[in-house]
């Protein structure tokens, strides 16, 4: 609870309504409709809260920046970023079904407002199934529902065109002609809408959701969709028929996913992307260490993107996981006035199930991404052997030892030295440097040890990279940012030409110590706020002088420092920012040193005397008890 919320408002049994409103809003930052929020507030206050009272409290909290207003019918509210709440929040139960035996929900709920209850409901259905397995069932069904909804929405548009005499596509008034037009796949493919065969459409599957063979029917539908849509060929996870769920549970899951509607929203792809990203993060949390292998927290990815600022060009991730790097890059491009086709996306992933996750994650957003012909090891089978890229963003597995390094003794990628067989960190860094086009830039997440390790020749490789002038920026991040590890991580920013994008920075490296940044989202997870990310990104852009910001760069003690090659050499080519940025300036409290020392020594004397008195009292008590 934040102290800034304690202002005078109507009270409910001694509790401030403003505090209660913060507590009944979802703690994960998702939105809640105003009507639902007022009802929840009434429940927490144990009395009916009028619309006037609710509006007054809401407006005051909005004015203080503690909550934000949303759009939509009736309006909505949510907690502002970094504001704690949710201690009294209760997720609504899944929408009830009618009694027709088909489990049809009464009404589809907006996906953006429904993601938290979706997760809670889906997780209850998981029973004894491992999250790593269940993840693919839920995300696969969400994908299937989305492409079916977008197909149905396009059908509605087609029907309007072919039945409107003023339309160039008018076919007459015959219902049979209308139906034939609705099944003309050209009307869909020309609008980049996936063609969904009749038996694979959601309503067809939903009508059979309670059949014992629903798993096999879903697998068959996915095969049909793959056969009809070349970009999806081999990329959908067909494991429903073999799912080890209790009888009827898969049908319940189908009914649950049916409560999300994507077709009515003009931003349906974005909304579905939000649901998908939310579920990826929740599954990563549920899976713990293994989950982090396919999911990089969005705020870490945003930091990479904020520094690289990929306005357009070819973007590559050699270990792309579920595709989060591409999603954030796309958001950056659109936020800066660019278009979706300003960037071309290339990714590679060795894990087959994660590779399929990435394909679905990008397909629902309409990205024309090239993820290679198959899931493959980047070192062994580069899917883009002859291509170079403008931007590379990656979060490779930390300190991986079984990467097959013994097989690549004379690989041309090892420009700065052969990486140790027992650790792939410097193999990843050199692979990415090898894949950059002239003037290209890379941002890489690695464990902190990569900045200082001297084992197995890593120190010599790091020295060669610094002398080769390819290390542009080093950022130390705080711990507890990842769901799968509590160790702190760092960001390496590499380039093969420091004269591009701004001033001539040859012979210079920027160090940023961001270890004190971030806000604890939970007791075990820290997040970087938008302000944190902007501060890091703006500092780099000011240092580069690349025109992204107007501020001039200055060293800030304890935070950032522009180091020359000679200084890095004196530090043994260790790239830990703390060695360079120094200690933060301590604000002068205005008290003279002599006066402060007299005050503190006097306080110490008082505490020592009190300690001696307590020791004497304890001894006396022991004597009285016969324990001198």
Q: What's the average pLDDT?
A: 82
Low-confidence stretches: 1-15, 93-113, 265-269, 288-292
What percent of the residues sit in helical stretches (DSSP H or I)? 40-55%
Instruction: Compute the separation of the termini in Å.
Output: 50 Å
Q: Which structural class do you get from the secondary structure elements?
A: alpha/beta
Architecture blueprint of SSEs:
Elements (H helix, E strand, L loop, with lengths): L10 E2 L2 E2 H8 L7 E2 H12 L5 H13 L3 E4 L5 E4 L29 E2 H15 L5 H33 L11 H8 L3 H4 L12 H6 L6 H15 L20 H9 L2 E2 L6 H20 L10 H11 L4 E5 L6 H12 L7 E5 L4 H12 L5 E2 L18 E6 L30 H11 E12 L10 H10 L3 E6 L12 E7 L12 E6 L5 E2 L5 E2 L2 H15 L15 E5 H6 L7 H4 L11 H32 L4
Parallel strand pairs: 6-7, 8-9, 8-11, 9-10, 11-12, 13-15
Antiparallel strand pairs: 1-2, 3-5, 4-5, 12-14, 13-14, 15-18, 16-17
How would you characterize the overall build of this protein?
With 628 residues, the protein is an alpha/beta fold. It is built from 20 helices and 18 strands. It has helices at residues 17-24, 34-45, 51-63, 111-125, 131-163, 175-182, 186-189, 202-207, 214-228, 249-257, 268-287, 298-308, 324-335, 352-363, 425-435, 458-467, 530-544, 565-570, 578-581, 593-624; strands at 11-12, 15-16, 32-33, 67-70, 76-79, 109-110, 260-261, 313-317, 343-347, 369-370, 389-394, 436-447, 471-476, 489-495, 508-513, 519-520, 526-527, 560-564. It has a 9-stranded mixed sheet with strand order 10-9-8-11-12-14-13-15-18. Strands 3-5-4 form a 3-stranded antiparallel sheet. A hairpin with a 2-residue loop joins strand 1 and strand 2. Mean pLDDT is 82; it is low at 1-15, 93-113, 265-269 and 288-292.
